[in-house]
Amino acid sequence: MKATNTNQFPKDFLWGGAIAANQAEGAYLEAGKGLTIVDLLPAGENRRSIMKGNVPSLKPLDGEFYPSHEAIDFYHRYKEDVALFAEMGFKALRISLSWARIFPNGEESSLNEAGLQFYDDLFDELKKYQIEPVVTLAHFDVPVELIEKYGSWRNRKLVSLFELYAKTVFTRYKDKVKYWLTFNEINMLLHLPFLGAGLVFKEGDHRKQIQYQAAHHQLLASALAVKAAHDISPDAKIGCMLAAGSFYPYTCNPDDVYKAMEKDRESYFFIDVQSRGQYPAYAHRFFKDHGITIEMELNDKEILKEGTVDYIGFSYYSSRTTSTDPEVIKKMTSGNVFGSVSNPYVPKSEWGWTIDPKGFRITANQLYDRYQKPLFVVENGLGAVDELTPGGEINDDYRIDYFRQHIAEMAEAIEDGVEILGYTSWGPIDLISASSGEMKKRYGYIYVDKDNEGNGTLKRIKKKSFSWYKKVIESNGDIR
């Protein structure tokens, strides 16, 4: 593959990486922090069922290992880690705030100064190295007490509580943060509803009704947060965030093509509302066909219309493929949260995720064509098993190859006319996998000495990809 022409990337392009509080910080009850969603997700076979809303307990259970409780201890080691990111030349670091670190029980009475101060200190450390923070308000994060007390996002009460949280942090950090995101991968609510929105189901629940009512509440909360950000910090930019990846029809059978369109709309639904300020026409047919009635108050439509985002953040790991043929549907790929039939034209990762760089360009073009707003690639990366050599090195050429191909296609998307603000690859340092709870599914340029059972020194070791990505940033996109 030819090297990227560095002129394709704007001179102020925000190169960097992305982490999340619940997968990196650890210190899960330190300095007043409350329990949050991921603190209840054990490693092992029960994890996926709980993420779907089949939650046995709203407290950690004896005998289970909860990887988030220590994670990679970023809470205590952030200065060391930020220095490594600065050594790579990061222009931006995407992080998330832990709602439960700032409001341990989610309500005004529990405002925790120690939590606010932690993020002050983190932002100051980033500023020291001229690294721009890109901050997500809710990255798979609901204080557990709000689940116990209100049923989480199924209850409209969370809209006002989230608005309070947003206004609190916008006011506190208005001089330190320019780029915000409301909800991480907001469409995950449909696939892993406990992880995405803290939803717990019981037998007999009309799940789709509950999910879309919760979605309405999150969309309202997002719109109110956008308005608050603009009021409190007029120079700030605030976006939404989609778990993206276009669906391909398995064949040119019109039924397959229509099915792929429907699958894409499942995700676009959220961004249609956040970007355009109203429910898309196709949603009304969908609600009717599935017996869904969205409860709205008189001014809800006005709130959505006034709270449209400034840019579209998205994650891209893989494309997806769908079919209406029962025999083809039997060939589903494993691992990915989004169901996909096996695509014979693209390889797969060790976790069954398709590796499709061209799909990255396609997805970026489709999003820009649809919304005509700047895009921000806030996650992209390869989860793989890394092996230490006897000399203590990690030669992750497979990761370099993945990034080289994806960055080349991102450059092509920019040449296509797509406006992209920046690229924060996922997991610049190894962290806990959200989907599997594993450490061995590593994404980073920096190795963390920890295994799936929680053993290890937490020592940080630079991988081969560390120096490669440093050169990419220094050259503004040369991938040789």
Automatic annotation (TrEMBL):
Entry EC number(s)? 3.2.1.86
- Mind listing the UniProt keywords for this protein, alphabetically? Glycosidase, Hydrolase
* Gene3D superfamilies the record matches: Glycosidases
Give the EC class as a word: hydrolase
Domain of life from the UniProt record: Bacteria
Q: Which SUPFAM superfamilies match?
A: (Trans)glycosidases (SSF51445)
Full protein name: 6-phospho-beta-glucosidase
Provide the species name: Bacillus salipaludis
Identify the taxonomic lineage of the organism of origin.
Answer: Bacteria, Bacillati, Bacillota, Bacilli, Bacillales
Q: What gene is behind this protein?
A: ascB
